[in-house]
Specification:
By secondary structure, the chain is mainly alpha-helical. The chain is built from eleven helices and three strands; from the N terminus they run ββααααβααααααα. Strands 2-1-3 form a three-stranded mixed beta sheet.
């Protein structure tokens, strides 16, 4: 993410999001980019044929699973997991349908103003205490679940799970992470809650499918029931925490920020600009930006944190069981699992 980068004098180039680009254009620091949809599509590495083939494969797989069920042929747990992943992938593809793929070279916007001048013009005192880029003050509020996930990633990195993520620790960042989710509106949170329930229910559809042993079938039923319960109860828990606790703290923080902005404006007016423009070349560094970032995470009561953490740990292991069982169960399949679909049975007969 970050198709546009800002190049300012004596400062490393960094990516811009939509809010930051709008601010720079509105203030006259950069010209409005002249690229249109065709220019952006021209950078897209994935053509329409590849997407068409992907959609065709998905449709064939879905139809085959439906017909197999109608003909009472066995459906494996691996196929159910594939259906769930297809559902999640289709949602992501819909929201990213206009997102170009594999763009390696961004469009660079050059400006003559220094970063310090740009920041102070917005009434903010310039310093290197930022998380992603010096224009962080223009970002939307991050979803608190997303911030908690970032903290979890740090914990996993500390226990040698670095290979799971190739995080960019340089500051300013060179690329905007695709998993940064802004604070969701309440209607969108309700929609997402129902989508999570549908996703979890796909696994529960394997309640009566064949498993090599009764123990494995029992464990599948327990884990998939918990996954559905986690999607329902956990989703509503996060919903009410966001509504009753997090948003209240964010409103309080916003009012304090407004007071600080007035004070910063006075500082900008009283202190010579040359003093405000001094740039610390070292930047906040990895430890510095993470400390700043984690201080912004809303404070949630400890009992709720313990409950959410406990549910998340159990959910992690239930997902691990499902993924392992998908392949372990292939050691013993019923004869109908090897039968092919009789397509002619579904054709109308005179």
């Amino acid at each position: 993410m970050g198709g546009y980068h800002l190049a300012a004098p004596a400062y490393p180039q960094f990516p811009l999001n939509a809010n930051q680009l709008y601010f720079l254009v509105a203030k006259g620091y950069v010209d409005l980019p002249e690229e249109d949809d065709s220019d952006i599509d021209d950078k897209n590495k994935r053509d329409g044929l590849a997407r068409l083939l992907t959609v065709a494969q998905i449709i064939v797989f879905l139809v085959k699973c439906i017909v197999r069920a109608s003909q009472h042929l066995a459906i494996t747990s691996l196929e159910l997991t594939t259906l769930a992943f297809i559902f999640a992938m289709m949602l992501a593809s819909w929201f990213w349908r206009r997102k170009p793929q594999d763009i390696n070279k961004p469009i660079t916007l050059k400006c003559t103003a220094t970063i310090a001048d740009i920041v102070t013009s917005a009434g903010v005192v310039f310093n290197e205490d930022y998380v992603y880029t010096p224009l962080d003050f223009l970002n939307d509020e991050e979803w608190f679940i997303n911030m908690a996930w970032t903290r979890g990633r740090k914990f996993l990195r500390t226990i040698t799970f670095n290979f799971l993520w190739n995080d960019d620790h340089s500051r300013p960042v060179k690329k905007i992470r695709s998993d940064i989710i802004p604070s969701l509106s309440l209607p969108l949170m309700i929609v997402c809650e129902h989508l999570v329930i549908v996703y979890s229910a796909i696994f529960l559809a394997g309640w009566n499918i064949h498993f090599p042993t009764p123990v494995e079938q029992l464990l599948w039923r327990i884990t998939t029931t918990f996954m559905l319960g986690f999607g329902f109860l956990g989703g509503w828990l996060f919903f009410f925490v966001d509504l009753l606790i997090v948003r209240k703290q964010q409103r309080h923080a916003a009012s304090n920020a407004a007071v600080r902005t007035v004070g910063q404006s006075l500082v900008s007016w009283l202190v010579p600009k040359s003093m405000l423009s001094q740039v610390n070349e070292q930047g906040p560094g990895e430890a510095g930006w993470e400390e700043i970032y984690f201080e912004r995470i809303p404070k949630v009561p400890r009992p709720i944190l313990v409950l959410a953490a406990g549910m998340s740990v159990v959910y992690f292991w239930t997902r691990m069981f499902v993924l392992v069982e998908d392949f372990v169960s292939l050691r013993s399949l019923p004869p109908s699992a090897f039968a092919t679909v009789a397509w002619t049975k579904n054709l109308p007969h005179s």
